[in-house]
Predict the 3D structure of the following.
Amino acid sequence: METPEKNPTEKNPANGRAADDGVHSIGQRLDRVSGSAQEAWGQTRDAFSDLSDAIDIKARVRRQPYGTLAAALGIGYVLGGGIFTPLTSRIVRLALRIGVRAAFVPLLKDQVAGLAEALADGDGDGAGRAAGKGHKASKRT
Amino acid sequence: MEITDQIEATARELGERVRPQLEDAKRRLMSANDKVIDYIKENPGTCLVGAVALGFIVGKIARRA
């Protein structure tokens, strides 16, 4: 009456084939994971280098250092969620006021200069007319 | 006429007195500006990341306020 019970050491052999297979599969999985991670990292690096080549950040910074920094600051401000805030509306209002003034001041200056010229011409004509009248009056007398 | 001459003289004197200080301030500002531009050109990544971070913080503060 022998039971077909196997030796526990045979069931889970310490240095058996099954255990060896398990180690092997885990190693393969690790290799696969590390390979895919390296691939993903390489793709990300390539994408970043392509992006930086397309934008050409270094040349842009060299050409316009302050402008590029201001753009980066603006991007950060928008990312921080500051676009629909009272501060933004205040800044926009101030910029509009400055822009309108900058646009209107030269126009007003031209208008005032034209008006002054017209007044000066009018005075000259008036003086001429007065002189003419005086001339006529002196002729009459 | 005398008052005008006096005002003109005072203005000229003030200008002559202030001019060296203005020139000095201008020179210092130009030097600081050159230094900042050189630093930005040497470290563009750091400056850009810093600017984005600063903008982000300002945006967060503006959102909370």
Q: What stands out?
A: Chain B has a mean pLDDT of 92.
